[in-house]
Amino acid sequence: MGLLKKKDTEKSSKFESRLKGGGGGSGSQISALRPRYVESLPPCTGNCPSGNDIRGWLTVIQLREKLGLSLDQACEQAFRIEMETNPFPSVMGRVCPHPCETGCNRGKKDGSVGINSVERFLGDYALEHGLKAEMVEGEGPKKEKIAVIGAGPSGLSCAYQLARRGYKVTVFENLPKPGGMLRYGIPVYRLPREIIDAEVQRILDLGVELRCDCKIGKDIAFSDIKAEYDAIYVAIGAHQGKAMGIPGEDGPGLWTGTEFLNHANSGKKVDIGTNVVVIGGGDTAIDAARVSKRLIGDTAAMASKLGAQVTILYRRTRAEMPAIEREIEEAIEEDIAIEYLAAPIEILRDDEGAVRAMVVQRMELGEPDASGRRRPVPISGDTYELPVQTIITAVSQKPDLAAIKSEELGDGWLNSDDWGFTGVDGVWTGGDNINLGIATTSIGQARIAALAIHAKLQGQAPPKIEKPAMIRSDRIKLDWYKPIERTQRRVKPAEERLAHPFDEVDLGITGDDALIESDRCFSCGKCFGCENCWMYCQANVFAKVEPPSHGHFFKIKKIEICDGCKKCWEECPCGFIVGE
Q1: Average model confidence (pLDDT) for the chain?
Q2: Nearest to 339 by CA among 292, 396, 386, 394
Q3: Are 456 and 296 in contact (CB under 8 A)?
Q4: For the chain, which residues make up each domain, given as ranges?
Q5: What average pLDDT does this structure show over 147-162?
Q6: Chain segment 507-547, per-residue pLDDT in tens
Q7: What is the CATH number of domain 43-133+473-519?
Q8: Residue 291: which H helix or E strand, with range?
Q9: How far apart are CA 58 and CA 66, in angstroms?
């Protein structure tokens, strides 16, 4: 007893004090501390703005043999689980900054699970095997008509969720092709256009009508849309770049980040010279800089010969940059310079009005601002001139709501409740026209709004979305799981990337590696059939479930004979069994 830690001794005493009854045999004691199966929310799903059942699609692959599934059957089931919340697994597997991985409990052992890599594998698998979207079980055709304004990730996600519930959905898009910022904001070397086209087509195959080059407020009045449709979902995004508000800003040689990327991604000619400065530290800034590097010369050798230089100015430090870390690293590998703690205060032009230089103010970090990051403060008298031919400002974006010409909606940002309802009768919203965010947030907001629209049209209250308690690493038996090194994605080297500037850079992981990453999932808070409870219980409380199903491998058959040995919940590696 002296070898027991104090904490273990206290736990044992607490447990024993709750035993009831007497007798000498284990079967004659009845414990008040009885095991219960309690499914918890894994941090991957808890941190996913789309609400994806990540544990679900990882473990259906991991447990395929226990579930009696072939590899193809398991991959299709995993894809179906993903499609419940996200109709763009192949797209998001390429561009999502994967906040799901940040809280992954495996990170406390040997690195978080490569969730985003497996997501891409599933998306690509579905495209390669021609897997289609499916209707929600029990739903059929409905008479109500829904209008979606905007064919970006949010608008198309809402259309998908409503179409699979039987509604007639029409999506209006003012640009020539669907995809929104996926197509017109993200460079092709990050997101091949055939991937966008294929996953959009899968949504359209549900019967969704798409009208591109159709501007609400110009080609069709918003009031006419309201009169014709039973509900409207507004998802126009935030495609307007913001000006910096400094002297010399008006004139040629200056682009906003969204405008520049739109032109470049549309295949339009963009003349930027050989010396470009990009202002900002977000994903748009990194994308603009890397596209500039590619536009300057078709090869790295040509760019070097021209003396080309692409520089990013960011007013904070590397630690505060909101861009995806991997994208920052790849930009640096491509010889893009980043000057930190620097902000433009004036643009200088020559006699003909062309940009020739920028006056830059050195900064230092002060106290945190509303964003939680330390506020950049100018260092008095510390400025310098930076030669430049083209300036791209990627400091922020805003929606062009005024183009819709609706007094009800106004001309600023849209507001909504938790269900996406705007307060305007029959109008819901989501995505970047509410607040700037990542695509997976827009997809999640669209799904919630679609559920609200569905409930409203069926005369029901929106379903309650309740999240169980999130399970943390202190509930997981980390040492029970075998160490497995995290698989790294295959990325082309910088020289090859610049030699073939618009080929896809990130090649993802192999199918075999995707299986390994799925095996690394702890199945936090949900049974994965390890058999520990069944093996350690001498009182024979547990029984195997035949046939087993996903998350259901054992059952409690005789709780009244529990003798309170507490081994079941002490030995449950994933924290699914609760004993107190």
Answers
A1: 90
A2: 386
A3: no
A4: 6-32+527-578, 43-133+473-519, 146-239+414-457, 243-397
A5: 98
A6: 999 999 999 999 999 999 999 999 999 999 988 999 999 99
A7: 1.10.1060
A8: helix 283-296
A9: 14
